Amino acid sequence: NAVSHLSGSRSSKTFKPKKNIPEGSHQYELLKHAEATLGSGNLRQAVMLPEGEDLNEWIAVNTVDFFNQINMLYGTITEFCTESSCAVMSAGPRYEYHWADGTNIKKPIKCSAPKYIDYLMTWVQDQLDDETLFPSKIGVPFPKNFMSVAKTILKRLFRVYAHIYHQHFDSVMRLQEEAHLNTSFKHFIFFVQEFSLIDRRELAPLQELIDKLGSKDR
């Protein structure tokens, strides 16, 4: 059962509190649909917009789900991602990230990976909790800038995957989490490819892995 990993015992180790989609809501139905199609094992098909559904809503539900997955994956390795082991937020020697959110921190600051990821996940959480950006009530429209907000969130969440793969993959393997990480990342990549949500340049740190995941699936 491919879906059990979404709600397994591991979820107790989330980095931030899990973001729940209200039960009984249409978004909850969509999440259930997403989980069911994931179980089929065909990820290319699983990410497609279900017939008759609203694209914004589909992207919103999946963005929340990816936040929760990355939250769990990073939660399993936080003890290995420290101020001293990861003094800069990087994805291999060629890619370093500096944090800015455009409101509180306008000029990008250089900080350790744990600090960067804390800023990032807190920032994403604030966006997801903002009812004007991610309306949870039926009939409340998504804002006009929703797509660009979602793209920024996903672009930033990608950086957490990139950091885990480049700096902590040995820990992931020791914990026997690599299948879980790979499935989650593959799902994420197929999703952002399906709707062109992340610029190719941003994906560069994991391009080889992305090519490999894609070729296995053709």
TrEMBL record:
Comp. bias intervals (Polar residues): 1-12
Top-level taxon of the source organism: Eukaryota
GO molecular function: kinase activity
Positions with a binding annotation for Zn(2+): C81, C86, H163, H168
Keywords: Kinase, Metal-binding, Transferase, Zinc
InterPro entries, per database record: MOB_kinase_act_fam, MOB_kinase_act_sf
Claim: Metal-binding is one of the keywords in the record: yes
One of the Pfam families matching this protein, by short name: Mob1_phocein
Region called Disordered, residue ranges: 1-22
This protein's name: MOB1A kinase
Gene behind this protein: Mob1a
